[in-house]
Write a structure and sequence with these properties.
- The complex is a heterodimer.
- Chain A is built from 26 helices and 9 strands.
- By secondary structure, chain A is α/β, with parallel strands linked by helices.
- In chain A, helix 13 crosses helix 14 and helix 15 runs parallel beside helix 25.
- The mean pLDDT of chain A is 89.
- A 6-stranded antiparallel β-sheet of chain B has the order 1-6-2-3-4-5.
- Chain B is globular.
- Chain B starts with 14 loop residues before the first strand and ends with a strand.
- The chains are: A alpha/beta, B alpha+beta.
- Bound molecules: guanosine-5'-triphosphate and magnesium ion.
- The site of guanosine-5'-triphosphate has 26 residues of chain A, from helix 1 and helix 4.
């Protein structure tokens, strides 16, 4: 039998991706934020004896939606061969979402109606007569809790039956299905009156009680900083000791096994393997525990529903810079990695507002840059001062982003309206968080892994060739290369060796630490000491400032190019970052020298 | 485009959602906006006849948190000023 294609459609934040993961075992990104999924995601699964391609779509507000993510979902529905649709609604909000399901039904495709979040519906006393709905609609209706795995078997069963009886139905073109809006409203109202009972005035929930604090006019701002600090406290106190342990383990492995094992190899090869690959990659690998903890905490924040609150709190400020609260959320999502944040701007409808948001996301301090800063702050500053230095970079990251937006705000013209759902708080489940952060760390390894190995190998070659010269000295290729860039970096207090690592950092910031390990000929556990001896705090801060502000990585540039569809904008945004980075470091270093 | 509901648009009690005091319930009477905006509001549960209330407003004339049925939404004051409501005291 041929492969069947089935798509998940529904309004934003109804749990489509959660159900997608449940059904297929995939690990699509889930988050309590309308607009988490912004591209098509597909997976295969076996339903009965039939192979099925399941496609997770971005959320649609209605079939008229005009933002980029909605366009992607609509385009898919319009152009692709689809055998059936799973329409996912939030059962609690069936009153407003049922009309959407009816609209989808008009497309003429076989559908399964899934009422998700049954757990929340019960808690909020929304009572749904499933059988009555099923009879009235003439399609299978499943009441489930995708997050907790309740009722998934029912969905599978319905799918199987549906595919079994599958007859190709003529499809109504989308624009035609759209015509009958008023009729749909009436039909939806009649169905609701018949099958749903929902309280007129919802009782106060714990979401309301939490929001009384977190959305309080000034307590809310305090809470925001407390949450931010708590996030880094966790990363520091869990990730940092693990990193140290891993560093010691790698160092021990090197001296006890690898050096003796490499003793009979020719010197250049042994040096390449040990001082190049092992030191470089090993040093980067020690950051894995930190990256994992970081993603774990970030996923928890994303899944809690706090992001929408941040959008609410910051909108007033952002609107004065031509943006809205959602752009602020993208800035925070960029803490993990700038690339998904750039893609997340698809939920913005005004293309100019989207560009402005894309212009400032690269200033968001991503986890790869966090590695560099953790490394330098621990190496150069006292344990008391280090966290504050780190915090100063987060503050600077926001200040520069805001200032950039402010400078270019005039280009946006009329802002688009900010209208979005404020979902209730939802407690993240640990198993999901663990899965998610492993997935992200895996992505980090796959994405940056190749770059790191290649980068480290190239740096070893540059610093050790021609063979026989003092490694990384002026006579080496790296030294010769750095001599060219000295006039640019010397006024910033960034010496030749450091400037080489910055060149590689252009490709990916994950390489920077590995590059330094190779350049300074220091293993995973020695590099901090070497760095501390070779620079003062001014040079270190200036180096970090430059690292924060110049282009994050090639992947981000590629994402900007893809999303803006403009090479000119990409180049302009890169130059903007480079110029700001140079000026900021210059101003800082020259001022600091006076003290 | 105007959506007239069962309520009289000339009723002097009518006010704008943007001016509705926090915690007071009101019925949406009509929405004085472009089709795209009314469609988006409708998708989020705000249409003539819906019962709404303002839960809170963000500082520095930031957006409003508006509740309609089981859905809370974030809405800027500019858009809330296009929504004519009839308070039910
Ligand atoms: N309480 C409860 N929460 C759920 C359930 N299913 C999903 N969620 C939560 O709802 C939020 C949204 O889930 P997603 O799967 O990302 O929703 P989506 O429909 O893919 O959202 P978009 O991609 O933004 O359109 C997440 O925080 C989930 O953990 C459920 O059955 N019960
Ligand atoms: Mg999704």
């Amino acid at each position: 039998m041929s492969k069947a294609r089935i798509a998940l459609v529904g309004m934003p934040n109804t749990g489509k991706s959660t159900l997608f993961n449940r059904l297929s075992g995939a690990s699509a990104q889930v988050g309590n934020w309308p607009g988490m999924t912004v591209e098509l995601e597909s997976a295969r699964l076996l339903v009965g004896a039939r192979m099925v391609e399941l496609v997770d779509l971005p959320g649609l507000n209605n079939l008229h939606g005009f933002s980029e993510d909605e366009r992607i979902a609509r385009h898919f529905l319009e152009t692709q061969a689809i055998d059936a649709l799973i329409v996912v609604l939030n059962a609690t909000q069936i009153e407003r979402q049922l009309a959407f399901a009816l609209q989808i039904k008009r497309l003429g495709l076989p559908i399964i109606l899934v009422l998700n979040m049954a757990d929340e519906a019960i808690r909020r006393s929304v009572i749904i007569d499933r059988d009555a709905l099923e009879k009235a609609l003439g399609c299978p209706v499943c009441l489930i809790s995708a997050k907790y795995g309740h009722g998934i078997q029912g969905v599978r069963h319905a799918l199987e039956t549906l595919l079994h009886h599958n007859t190709t139905t003529p499809r109504t073109p989308l624009h035609q299905a759209l015509h009958e809006d008023d009729a749909i409203e009436a039909e939806s109202a009649a169905l609701l009156a018949h099958a749903v009972r929902s309280p007129q005035t919802p009782a106060a929930t714990w979401t309301d009680r939490i929001d009384n604090i977190l959305l309080h006019p000034w307590l809310g701002i305090v809470a925001f900083f407390v949450i931010l600090l708590g996030l880094f406290q966790i990363v520091y106190s869990v990730g940092a000791p693990l990193q140290e342990l891993l560093g010691e383990a790698l160092e021990a492995a090197k001296t006890q096994w690898l050096i003796p094992a490499a003793a009979h190899l020719p010197a250049p090869i042994a040096s390449f393997l040990l001082d190049g690959l092992f030191d470089g990659v090993g040093t980067v690998a020690t950051f894995l525990p930190i990256i994992l903890t970081f993603y774990l905490v970030m996923s928890a924040v994303e899944d809690s529903g706090y992001m929408a609150r941040a959008a609410f709190l910051m909108d007033a400020l952002m609107s004065r810079m031509g943006l809205d609260g959602r752009a602020f959320v993208m800035q925070i999502m960029g803490f993990g990695c700038n690339v998904p944040a750039i893609m997340g701007t698809r939920i913005l409808r005004n293309p100019l507002q989207r560009r402005l948001s894309m212009l400032i996301i690269p200033f968001s301090l991503c986890s790869a840059r966090l590695q560099v800063f953790l490394f330098f702050t621990t190496a150069i500053f006292s344990p008391q001062a280090a966290p504050w230095v780190l915090l100063s970079f987060y503050v600077l990251s926001f200040l520069v982003a805001f200032a950039s937006a402010w400078v270019w705000r005039g280009r946006v013209g009329e802002q688009e309206p900010l209208i979005m759902e404020l979902p209730p708080y939802r407690s993240p489940t640990f198993s999901y968080l663990a899965l998610q952060s492993l997935r992200e760390a895996g992505q980090f390894l796959r994405g940056a892994g190749g770059f790191i190995i290649a980068g480290v190998a190239i740096i070893w070659l540059l610093t050790h060739l021609p063979w026989g010269v003092e490694p990384a000295s002026a006579a080496s290729w790296a030294g010769q290369l750095a001599a060219i860039t000295t006039p640019i970096f010397a006024p910033l207090g960034i010496d030749t060796l450091l400037s080489i690592s910055l060149m590689f950092g252009f490709v990916a910031k994950e390489i920077v630490i590995g590059a330094l390990a190779v350049i300074y000929g220091a293993g995973p556990n020695e590099l901090t000491g070497v760095l501390a001896r070779s620079m003062d705090w001014r040079q270190a801060y200036s180096f970090m400032l430059f690292t924060l502000l110049y282009t994050p990585c090639l992947a981000t540039l590629a994402a900007i190019r893809r999303e803006s569809r403009s090479l000119r904008f990409t180049v302009a945004s890169t130059l903007w970052s480079l110029a700001i980075a140079w000026l900021a470091s210059f101003a800082f270093y020259q001022t600091a020298l006076l003290f | 485009m105007k959506h007239t509901a069962n309520l009289d648009p000339l009723d002097p009690a009518l006010t704008l959602l943007a001016h509705l005091p926090v915690g007071v319930f009101a019925t949406v009477c009509y929405i004085d906006a472009q089709h795209e905006l009314t469609a988006r509001l409708r998708a989020l549960g705000i249409k003539p006849g819906s019962r709404v209330s303002v839960v809170r407003s963000a500082p520095l004339s930031g957006p409003l948190q508006v509740r309609s049925g089981q859905t809370d939404i974030i809405l800027r004051r500019a858009e809330a000023a296009a929504i004519h409501v009839n308070p039910t005291f």
